[in-house]
Amino acid sequence: MAEPPVRFGILGCAKIARKLSRAITLAPNSTIVAIGSRSLEKAISFARENGFPASAKVYGSYDGVLDDPDVEAVYIPLPTSLHLRWAVLAAQKKKHVLLDKPVALNVKELDIILEACESSGVQFMDATMWMHHPRTTQMREFLSDPQKFGQLKAVHSIFSYVEGPEFLKNDIRVKPDLDALGALGDTGWYCTRAILWAAEYELPKTVTALPDPEFNEAGVILSCGASLRWEDGKVATFYCSFITNLTMDITVLGTNGNLRVHDFVIPYQESAAPFYVTSNSKFVELAIGCDPSPNEHIVGTDLPQEALMVKEFSSLVGGIKLHGSKPEKKWPNISRKTQAVIDAVKASIDKGFEPIEVVF
């Protein structure tokens, strides 16, 4: 007998909530039962335009969703400055928390959120979708192969996009009172996660922001970069931006092989995602080519990565609800490590690009 689906409420009508609403609908073990907005009219329109079930309840406040006894879990796509208040309140009301990234403005805020979730026995997960694509699992298998990949030596990651003048003027991600971390918190979150993922979540010893980050008039970061260093000699760099053409690259270099992926954040095709690997490469005679050439691996999926994320989250929630399982601690730990590196990059920028030791 199939287990009942996890019943989701959504706080807010952000653009990304459209994508997650679809994901909740597509995932086989979840359903939408409520949405709340500061404007009842906006919530009604959002529910109608995004094909919510006719039974879904609509509220003119976030509190309405959290007070609804039918809501078991919430997706929170609010501006980062509001995460602390609403994620903590959700946890206190025994709602499992799927929180958009960046999860907080700093580790101190995140720790309060995580403590609230732990105290209430609810599951926490950040909404970093690419982590749940089957491609990510296959890439990890390659990186874990000592013959094909060897020892990790370096990682380079880039995530940038351009949305135009209207975005740079009015989007919440460039407003200091809403998302003060700017590009570092948005695109930089993905770059940082990619680096930590490649390093199997071993934190670097130090982080140094690269000189000449770009800011808007309000002092919000529009582009920046950083270098990371580990005690065993591993290194990594990243670049994140709101003002550079769309790029979503990871390059992972090992002693015996390397891996490249060019669309790691959002696959160019929803149903199939490629990555490229090569092992023991050498120049051919006269150095007019190399052998072997990189191999392309294409990983198909029946569900988009965001639906797979919801499916995984709902599976954890179902285990807690129906079988008395404890909340999975892996996901909060990964979130905290990512936030710790983001904090160190911000501190390095603020201190004139000094190396900052990562504290966890």
TrEMBL record:
Gene3D superfamilies: Dihydrodipicolinate Reductase, domain 2 (3.30.360.10), NAD(P)-binding Rossmann-like Domain (3.40.50.720)
Domain Gfo/Idh/MocA-like oxidoreductase N-terminal: residue ranges: 6-125
Listed InterPro entries: Gfo/Idh/MocA-like_OxRdtase_N, GFO_IDH_MocA-like_dom, NAD(P)-bd_dom_sf
Residue span, GFO/IDH/MocA-like oxidoreductase domain: 146-259
Listed GO MF terms: nucleotide binding
PANTHER family listed in its UniProt record: GFO_IDH_MOCA-LIKE OXIDOREDUCTASE N-TERMINAL DOMAIN-CONTAINING PROTEIN, PTHR46368
Name of the protein in its database record: Uncharacterized oxidoreductase At4g09670-like
Biological source species: Coffea arabica
Gene (name only): LOC113713398
